[in-house]
Amino acid sequence: MKLENKVAIITGGARGIGRAIAEMLAGEGANPVVVDVDINEAENTAKELRSGTGRDSMAMQIDVSSAADAERMAKEVTDKYGRIDILVNNAGITRDALLVRMKEDAWDKVLAINLKGVFNCTQAAAKVMMKQHSGKIVNMASIIGIIGNVGQANYAASKGGVIALTKTSAKELSAWNINVNAIAPGFIDTKMTQALDEKQRQELLGLIPLKKLGMPQDVARLVLFLASGDSDYITGQVIRIDGGMAM
Ligand SMILES: NC(=O)c1ccc[n+]([C@@H]2O[C@H](COP(=O)([O-])OP(=O)(O)OC[C@H]3O[C@@H](n4cnc5c(N)ncnc54)[C@H](O)[C@@H]3O)[C@@H](O)[C@H]2O)c1
Question: Which of 23, 106, 118, 198 could form an S-S bond across to 95 if both were Cys, CB 3.0 to 4.6 Å?
Answer without folding.
Answer: 106
